[in-house]
Write a structure and sequence with these properties.
- With 62 residues, this protein is mainly α.
- It has one domain.
- Helices cover 58% and strands 11% of the residues.
- It has 3 helices and 2 strands; from the N terminus they run αββαα.
- It has a two-stranded antiparallel ribbon.
- Strand 1 and strand 2 form a beta hairpin.
- The longest helix is centred in the C-terminal third of the chain and has 19 residues.
- InterPro entries: Phage_TLS_TfmB.
- Pfam families: DUF1799.
């Protein structure tokens, strides 16, 4: 999962004030199809969403 997470780091969308606002799920899906075996894709996507939320919380913490 860590390797997959590192590959989707290029998929962050940037909003106003140059802050990351979330992942581009279309790009994440491409990474899933190219790097993860089919039976694990749903599980990886859910884990990526959880990691996205944790990362956003950490990035936006003041």
């Amino acid at each position: 999962m860590f390797n997959f997470w590192m590959h989707v780091q290029t998929q962050w969308q940037v909003g106003s004030e140059n802050q990351r606002v979330g992942l581009n799920y279309a790009g994440v899906e491409v990474c899933l199809r190219r790097r993860v075996k089919k039976p694990l894709r749903d599980e990886y996507f859910v884990m990526a969403q959880a990691m996205e939320q944790a990362a956003l919380a950490a990035m936006h913490k003041k």
